[in-house]
Automatic annotation (TrEMBL):
Keywords: Aminotransferase, Transferase. This is Aminotransferase. Signal peptide: none annotated. It comes from the Bacteria. NCBIfam families: PRK09276.1. Its EC number is 2.6.1.-. Its cofactor is pyridoxal 5'-phosphate. It comes from Filobacillus milosensis. It is an enzyme of class 2 (transferase).
Length: 389
């Protein structure tokens, strides 16, 4: 008897899990593995957030079910953050929805808004969960090309008039995973204009909104006048506050779209543990000095990595956001063979570009989520890898 649905059976393999399985096998044989694959911050969650969690955990009333939309303290903190950081006014009762991490929210949003066979415009290369969630919802993926020569900005001109007319939803992600591409507000203005002209909706994944370098500040889609007519934005505390395992995020924007998402969620979960929400509220209401300190650490790692890659002849445009380096593989490899060689021969996990879509062929992604000495050792192992230079 086959216990799997057709959608599960036809779901593309999750390359990250394949590399993690091979990592376990090699470690069992005594091989030391440096993991530059999955983007999980190695820095600690700030103490003031942990202290708030502990305090709230001791309160009996916080061990009850959360309101489905999330507690008032967290939703108000999200609204305050948007007003202070972006100058965007949100009604915490209607324009904010608490999520168990933005990954969950995006996947459920796709289920909430598309019907089988409807078209979703997706960045390529892009976060694999987008395409998986579309597949599980029975939708059809159409790709928005992200090209290096255009600094990985969305190339809306390569979308046909027919694609735009038939689309139900457009997904955006800036700062971008995996390309580390960034945009100015004008790109969001163009997206909102197209959404209104062709009558589709937009979901902007802003998981890396605060993870930026130098004087660059990532814009919010909701800063565009009229964006709330057609769009929602997803945020997360995972990367900026080193809270990946806490599973806390939010969706903001169009209240009808948030209502649709809330219907799916109220039938599948009961929001996040209240002490986590309240600790996350303290994080968002902070002066963000801990985020800035983290960014300086990642920027130092970035500089070391770019210099080391340059010695290998691997040129990378300096990213302005995320903690990823998106680089071309050496000419005698393709993406998968290079990633496999790095793991099998050098004991270093990098992510092949094809994990993020067909347009990722010829690239690999490094996550700057290990200390400097581990990054330096990984680069030294790369230099010694037979056939790279």
């Amino acid at each position: 008897m086959n216990y799997y649905s057709e959608r599960i059976q036809t779901l593309p393999p999750y390359i990250f899990s394949q590399f993690q399985q091979r990592k376990k096998e090699l470690e069992a044989k005594g091989m030391d593995i440096i993991d530059l694959g999955i983007g999980a911050p190695d820095l600690p969650t700030p103490t003031f957030i942990i202290d708030e969690l502990v305090k709230e955990t001791y309160l009996t009333q916080n061990h009850r079910y959360s309101p489905y939309q999330g507690c008032a303290e967290f939703r108000e903190a999200v609204a305050n953050f948007y007003q202070k950081h972006y100058g965007v006014i949100l009604d915490p009762d209607h324009d904010v929805l608490t999520l168990i991490g933005s990954k969950e929210g995006i996947a459920n949003f796709i289920t909430a808004t598309i019907n089988p066979s409807e078209i979703v415009l997706v960045p390529n290369p892009g976060y694999p969960v987008y395409q998986s969630a579309i597949h599980l919802a029975g939708g059809i993926t159409a790709h928005i090309p992200l090209l290096e020569e255009e600094n990985f900005k969305p190339n809306f001109q390569q979308l046909s008039h027919e694609q735009l007319d038939q689309a139900k939803l457009m997904l955006l992600n800036y700062p971008s995973n995996p390309t580390a591409g960034t945009v100015e507000k004008e790109v969001f203005e163009e997206a909102v204009h197209l959404a209104k002209e062709h009558e589709f909706i937009i979901a902007q994944d802003a998981a890396y909104d605060l993870m930026t370098f130098g004087d660059y500040e990532a814009p919010s889609l909701l800063q565009v006048p009229g964006a709330k007519d057609v769009a929602v934005e997803f945020g997360s505390l995972s990367k900026s506050f080193n809270m990946t395992g806490w599973r806390i995020g939010y969706a903001v924007g169009n209240r009808d779209l948030l209502k649709a998402l809330s219907i799916v969620k109220s039938n599948t979960d009961t929001s996040q543990f209240l002490p986590i929400q309240k600790a996350a509220a303290v994080a968002l209401n902070s002066d963000l000095s801990s985020v800035k300190a983290n960014n300086l650490i990642y920027e130092e790692r970035l500089e070391k990595t770019l210099k080391a890659l340059d010695t290998l002849g691997i040129k990378v445009n300096r990213p302005r956001g995320t903690f990823y380096v998106w680089a071309k593989v050496p000419s005698n490899f393709d993406s998968m063979s290079f990633a496999s060689a790095m793991l099998e021969q050098a004991g270093v996990i990098i992510t092949p570009g094809t994990a993020f879509g067909q347009a990722g062929e010829g690239y690999f992604r490094i996550s700057l989520s290990v200390p400097n000495e581990k990054l330096e050792e990984a680069i030294e192992r790369m230099k010694a890898l037979e056939g790279v230079l």
